[in-house]
Amino acid sequence: MIYVLLSVVCSVLLSVLLKLARRFEIDVGQAIAWNYVATSALTALLLQPTPAGLSEPGVPWLALAALGILLPTIFLALAASVRHAGIVRSDAAQRLSLLLSLLAAFALFGEQLSAFKAVGITLGLLALPCMVWRSGQPTAARGAAGWLYPLLVFGGFGMIDILFKRVALAGVPLGASLQAMFALALLVAFALQLWRRLQGRTRFTARSALGGVLLGLVNFGNILFYLRAHRALPQHPALVFASMNLGVVALGALVGMLLFRERLSRLNLGGVLLALLAIAVIGWK
């Protein structure tokens, strides 16, 4: 379980780094782009993928290309969600995206719907609007950002998970698929930043590059420890899945409320508790 704990810490630390970025004058868009330089390098160094894995027939290039686009853009949405809605809501929305992957498993991948999963999905669907609801905002625009970005995180990470399943079913080696995804994401992320630079909206800085490398180390650690947890407990995938998601929501809530003094209404807090219950029920069997 040590790998699960390390993955949980890395996942929440990602949100903390995104929350602190502006305080340290780090351009989040640039940091996300440099993050993929770090993850690509670490994948090549530690997983040592071979190009042959991508030369076999049946490689789902459409899914890989979609992931290359979604990974950096949803990362930007997560950063905006952390900024406008806070760590608690953002982490919970990201983890509740499992509802979409579960629905896809039933609709697209032939999985059978059990009573536990049906109850968990229902609880999760009830939890989502409770978590993102915000009242008493000073402006309508801020209020919209407070619920829109968590919903984008919810939908985006759900789609990413579905695409990951599609790539896994195609039998592409893990290292090769990760290397392809990160390389494509790197190109998309830097294309977005070059466009911003041409428009005069940003300038590249060493501070943002260093912040991005740190972000990449944590991001890769999150992925690596999660994969190692599954390898260490191959007969208990539900335990790893439930522990990871429960841990991120719980630790994210503690960090958000204690470190950043994020305020939750009773309805928001009830939504977080419902999310915890939903994830526990889904991971029960």
From TrEMBL:
Give the stretches traversing the membrane. 59-80, 92-109, 115-133, 145-164, 170-192, 204-227, 239-260, 267-284
Keywords attached to this Swiss-Prot or TrEMBL record, sorted alphabetically, are: Membrane, Transmembrane, Transmembrane helix
Q: Note the topology in the membrane.
A: Multi-pass membrane protein
Question: Which ranges carry the EamA domain?
Answer: 2-128
Could you tell me the superkingdom of the organism this chain comes from? Bacteria
Kindly name one Pfam family recorded for this protein: EamA
Broad class of where this protein is predominantly found: membrane
Q: Please list the coiled coil stretches.
A: none
Q: Which InterPro entries match?
A: AA-Vitamin_Transporters (IPR050638), EamA_dom (IPR000620), EmrE-like (IPR037185)
Cellular compartment(s): Membrane
Family designation: Belongs to the EamA transporter family.
Checking PANTHER family in the record gives: EAMA DOMAIN-CONTAINING PROTEIN, INNER MEMBRANE TRANSPORTER
Q: What is this protein called?
A: EamA/RhaT family transporter
- Write down the species: Rhodanobacter umsongensis
